[in-house]
Structure formats: structure tokens, C-alpha cells
Protein 1
Amino acid sequence: SKLTSLGHLEMTWRSRVHFHPLLVRVLHKSRLRYYGKPEKKMDVPYQAYFEVADSSGMISMVLWNSLCPEWYNSMKVGTVLLLEQYAIKNSYPFKTQPTPGDSQMKRFATIEISLNVRDPPTKISIIPEEMVKPEWGLPEVKYRFITRSELDNLPNNHSCDVIGLVTFVGRIERARKRERSEDFWLYRWAHAIDGTSEQPFILEIFATSQPDVFEHIHPMTYLVCTQMRVVRDLTDNPSSTIYLTTSNESQIFITGCHKGQPYTRDTKVKNFIHWTKTQSEADQMKKTVIGGYYPLPRPPNSFLKY
């Protein structure tokens, strides 16, 4: 009876110090960010963004410091949260924005919810899915799955979700975050097929905050990658390779992780599962490859051209 809505919060937050509880569903989840510096003495300098929504729209929610190790893994895409004693702040203008599955959903971009250990100490409760009532009006998680046959027509930087059967996975490589920096990004290449094209999805998968999944991508795994971005050569080179790369909000799922995930209800996911049942496992196994160096963009065929 004492709940408030995101729409009401946006209109009234400046005139309040204490806010009524919120009931929201997690629609997107960013990777965990470490912002510690040697000169700053902070115990747990972590931060994570979530996009959460109720019937009035979607807003960014920030999880701070020691709340991250306590709650980050529990707050999955689709999780329903009851939030009490949270803070409202002006939103940070430079954060990345995921592409919502529902383009009609209103976005409250000027403010964000801040969850802290103190000032005020936030109380977080996870509502089990079987206790969520339809009359709460919480939006469902929606996706933007594409098939491999649709990929060739998509523009650079387009956001999409994909599912495929892994046929190749490369070794874990690393790239400097910045020139002369001692920090590195970890990533690996993978190929996945979905039966709609002779060509595979080429996936550049960066280590997100899911090391248990990232390290266990194997051939013959059913791989789901969400919030991927299309990367294509913007010159007029028709033979250039189109591939997909992870974004700040990408989530990766492999065989063993799929049960109960919201995307299992998506039509294109169901079509893919139906296609895999028509395939011979032994035939597909013969085509799989693991490890090795995978250069992209590909070097020229001869050293003279190089």
C-alpha cells in the first residue's frame, strides 16, 4: 500500500528526503566496475549499473561498494526487487546505455537510484518469481534476437542478442585498455552456428563479470550472448568480415545456465532449439575447432600487400 512508482519519483524527488518503497524488475545488468586507486583508501571500490523498470518506465540503478559482492550475483536479468531506504541522485551523464528490448518503454534519464551501505542504508529484498503478482504491472524482459541470415543487413553498432551452437573457441587473449597501461582486457573469439546461414556468427567475447562462464565456453555448447554490438568495416570493402562484440551490458550463458532464463520463451530461441534436434551431434563434432591464434581483421595474403 505504501509503494511509489518511478514516474512519481521523477516528479517529486527534489522535494523529499525519504522515499516510499519501490518494486521493480531488472531488465539489464552491467559488468562490475572496479574504480580503486592506490592513493584512495577504500575497502571495496566496486560499482555496478542495472536498468530496472516498473509499469511507469525504466531507470538506472547503481549498486555501490560492499553491496556489490553481497548482491551482484543475486540480481539477475528478470529478478524482481523490493527497494527500501534508497537515495535518488542526478544521473551520471557519461555511462553507457543498453538498447531496451521494448522500444516503447519510457526512460527516466535525468535521475538514478543509488544503493549504499549507509546514508541511507539500503534494504534490498528479492521477490521470488512465483510470488510476483500480475496486478503489480511489472514489465517482462524482452530481447532482440537475430538469426545469422539477418546479420548481413544490420548497420554498424546495432545492438542484438544471439543464440548459436559453438563450433570454434579460441584461446584467451589480452589487449591493453590504454596505451602504456598496465591494465588489460581479456577476450576470446568464438564461432557459433544457428542453421540459417552457411556462415557462423563471429563473436568477440570480452571477459565480463562472469568468469565461470567465460572460461567454460566449449565447442558444442549452446551459447547465448545478449546486448552484442555489430562491428563492420565502414569502407566500401564487400569482403570485410562482420562480427559481434560484447558491450558493457552483455550477459553470456552456456549449456547448464539456460534453465529459468527469460529468453527461453523467445520465438527465435525456440526455433534454434528445434533446429538443433534435427542435427547429428557426431557430424557437428567433426567440424569443431578449439584454441589457436585468430587474427581479426585478417592480414593480407602476401607480405608485400601487408
Protein 2
Amino acid sequence: MEGGNSPNLQLQQLPLATAAVSVQPHTDSFSYKENLIGALLAIFGHLVISIALNLQKYSHIRLAGSKDPRAYFKTKTWWCGLFLLVLGELGVFSSYAFAPLSLIVPLSAVSVVASAIIGIIFIKEKWKPKDFLRRYVLSFVGCGLAIVGTYLLITFGPNSHEKMTGENITRHLVSWPFLLYMLVEIILFCLLLYFYKEKNANYIVVILLLVALLGSMTVVTVKAVAGMIVVSIQGNLQLDYPIFYIMLVCMVATATFQATFLAQASQLYDSSQIASVGYILSTTAAVSAGATFYLDFTGEDVLHICMFALGCLIAFLGVFLITRNRKKAVPFEPYISMDAMPGMQNMHDKGIAVQPDLKASFSYGALENNDNMPEIYTPATLPIVQEQHGSKGGSAPPYRVLEHSKKE
């Protein structure tokens, strides 16, 4: 009996096993297709955002260098940049609905690469080939590394896909890995905020860690909102779930506070430092949030995870080299050194610049004019008290530095 029934059982189980094998490649190809769509949307969005920001910057510079009395918002260039900026943000926003969060976030390195290339193309100075390569060798190396890292991210990115329905998001929100992650993040955020506000710890790492922690929650809510909108467009309405509006409010709130801390960091530190350190910290925090909330790396083998981490590290190094090569802003000097004034001799000792004394006059160079000097060589002054120098009997030197007593 058992021997006669076993062939029938094997024949009955064969079609089921064949069907299971035929479904798996279809699922993998579909997930890879969604990954590719999301990655292309993110790359397109970041490229358009870089072009838009440079267009708006060009509009401001052109108005500042001309006698055009119009405001910047009355120029076509600025409005074109604004339109491209909105288009790019929509592209990045929609990319979260197709690809995993851990894949989309590191692709923001594309905007840094695009800004570097646009800056090199539109520079006004003319350099010799040797000087050009020596000056921008770090930018070229950084762009190459960022492109290699982006390729590794897209190739070995996670393939976890699920529909962003209200039930799925609610289930992820109350899962114990994400609750534990949120507890650690809230404690760390409160400690950093205490040291930043109460102890005046205005370090760039402290401020950008606050930005990164807020940004990790921003991208989690952005993916939820974008995914529920796409599912609703496909026919399964999700906008009647309360979780959609909770995520929408959290997205707006975290993005607002994130912009506030970024504005404070930009007042204290150079933009190149903020770009490199902020990209590294924000990407690390966002990938960690995606791995705990959406379980992006569930089912991935060790090789894919290691290659994805290698792509992130290469992209980090590329962004660091690109921003490392940027010029630092030269601070404005409130006075002019005597040796920098045309037609004037350097009369002070050892080339040390003499600052103006506010109690006497506002003369650039802090030297008082003398009656014996021609008017063409006298510096422009705004005297508070008019004083006469020199004696009638003897010859006075052409210049004399005022020395005020402590009583004055």
C-alpha cells in the first residue's frame, strides 16, 4: 500500500513545487524593478535640486553685480530655480514609496557630486591645466568615489518591499525593536539638547547629531506618507486611517526643528563641514531607523549587507573629499592696513597695521592729516573734534600717529 501510493504523492507534489519555484524569480525581478525606479527617482530629484539651487544662487549674484533695481523674486531665473526645486523635492519624496528607506537615504550624495561638478564647470577663473588638476584633484577623486559608492548601494541595496498600508505601519510602530530604538533615541536626544542649551556645547558634532536624530524620524514618516499616498492612488484608499495624519504631523514637525538646528549650525561653522559631517551622521541614523522600523535588511545575506556597508563608506569618503576642497570664507577686516593703501608709504614699524581710534576719528589707517600735506594724499576722515598739529617755528614730519592719554 505504501509503495503504491508514494508515486502518486510525488506526482501530486511536483506541480506545487514547480509553481513555488516559478513565483520566486518573478518576485525578485519585481522588487529589483521597484528598487531601480526608486533609485532613479532619487537620483533625478537630487540632480534637479542641485541645478535649482545653483540657478537661484546665480540669480542673486547677477542682481548683486548689476544696477538692476528689481528684487530677486521678480526675475525669471529665480522662478525657474524654484520650479525645479519643487520638482526635485517631489521626485525625492516619491522615491520613498518604491524603494527601501536604507537605499534612498545614502543617494543624497548625488546632490553633493552634482554641486561640485556644476561649480567646476561654471568657475570664472581661467587656470592652466596643471594648476586646475592640482586645485581640483580632491574633487575629482571624491566624485569618483561617490559614484562608485552609489553603484554599490543600488546593486547591493535591500530588497524588502511591502505595501504601506495603515495596518502595516501601525504594526511596525508598536513593534518592540522600534520601541527600543525610539527609547534610546529620545534619551540621546535629550542629553544632547541639555548639553547644547544648558552647557553651551556648540560643537558641530552635537548640533548635527541633533539634526540626524530628527532626520531619521523625518525619513521614516516621509516613507509612510508617500507609500500610503501611492497605495491610495492605486485604488486602496489609506487616507482614512488616523496613522496617516499622525505621520504627516510628525513629518512636518521634525522637518521644521531639523531646519532650525541646521540654521544654527550654519551660523557657527562652514557649509563644507556641515555638508560632510551632516551627510555621514544623517545617513547612519536614517539607515538604522529604516532597519529597525521597516526591517529593510530582513532576509538579506551577509555578503549583500557587507557590500552595502562598503558602498556607504566609499560614499562617505567621497563626500568628505569633495567638501574638503572647498574654499573657506575670508572674514571681513574692519580697517585697511597702511601698506595696502595706494600712494601711501609704510611709516609704521615692522608693517604692523594701525587700527583707528574711535575716540579721535574714523580715519582709515588711523593717521591724522597734517596741514603741510597735499590734499591728494590725505586719508578720508570723519573727525569728531578738529585738532591742529604742527608748530610754526620748526618743520613737522608729514605724518604723526596720535597717542591719546588715559584721561581722554
